[in-house]
Write a structure and sequence with these properties.
Alpha-Beta Plaits; alpha+beta; 34% helix; five-stranded antiparallel sheet
């Protein structure tokens, strides 16, 4: 876990107590949408499993996996360099070829707990996310 969180346990407890853990921060990030177009469920599950390894090898954070879509981010946390998205995209295209669609964007985003105090979910809000998601549906 220390690879993802650089704060001490005491700092985390203090952030929970004073509410700053809920604060959103403005950060330069890259999000990458990876959509798998695999013929079978078995192929999809294998691809979803292995894409997390490709992401880890490129210091990315897997934000969400929903059905055949994986959202990978760079720059959201310390130790996840923004520039590493290029090597991730190249590795994913090399590994999966035509069985994958990839859309990405780099820019400012609001990063932190999305959902408020009742639902803790570390994620992001990026102005180009909806356009990127729509781009996946284009052939």
């Amino acid at each position: 876990m220390s690879k993802y969180i650089t704060a001490t346990p005491e700092e985390i407890l203090q952030a929970i107590e004073d509410g700053s853990i809920l604060a959103l921060r403005d950060r330069e990030i890259c999000f990458v949408l990876v959509e798998f177009c695999t013929p079978t469920e078995s192929d999809l599950l294998s691809a979803l499993s292995s894409i997390t390894e490709v992401a880890a090898a490129n210091k990315a954070v897997v934000d969400t996996i929903v059905s055949n879509l994986v959202i990978v981010t760079f720059g959201m946390i310390d130790g996840s360099p923004l520039a590493a998205y290029e090597s991730f995209v190249a590795a994913a295209l090399s590994k999966y070829g035509k069985s994958v669609k990839i859309v990405y964007s780099v820019g400012r985003a609001r990063v932190g707990n999305i959902g408020g105090a009742k639902r803790m979910s570390f994620s992001f809000v990026h102005p180009e996310f909806s356009m990127a998601l729509a781009a996946l549906s284009n052939p």
